[in-house]
Amino acid sequence: MKTLVTLALGIALGAAAVWFFTTGRHDPRWQSAGKKVEEAAQSARDAAQDKLRDFRLRPEDLKDELARTGQIIRREVRQAGHAIADATADARITAAIKARLVTSRDLPAFNLSVNTTAGVVTLSGAVSSPEQVGKAILIAMETDGVREVVSTLQVKP
Fold it and tell me: What is the Cα–Cα distance from 154 to 108, expressed in whole angstroms?
């Protein structure tokens, strides 16, 4: 939205500059500058139209979408890409920790739960000793991508 406002402001300033340079200015240098400003304004206008088309923000697009769904939702592709990458990273971390817990002979892996959000791992469940709590935390901390480990593991004989 900020980009569109900036483009609109640029178009308005370009149009004002064209008007200023073309009224009463017959010097070839002024005319050349006016042409350059006019071309820049046209280029900015075309870029704005391309953005509107890319984001489906043209009036006909909005009208159709409102008629079909009753709402309009737009996200930047970069933002969506980061969200997808973060979600897959969290799933990869969780899977890696669970795999290491299952291969550990000292831990009751099926009694443990692992959740990861934004690199923060939460361990929950029951173990039979404080040593098992420490081992589970160590396994989680040694996994790539883990920023922090929160343990709510309970010791139950």
Answer: 12
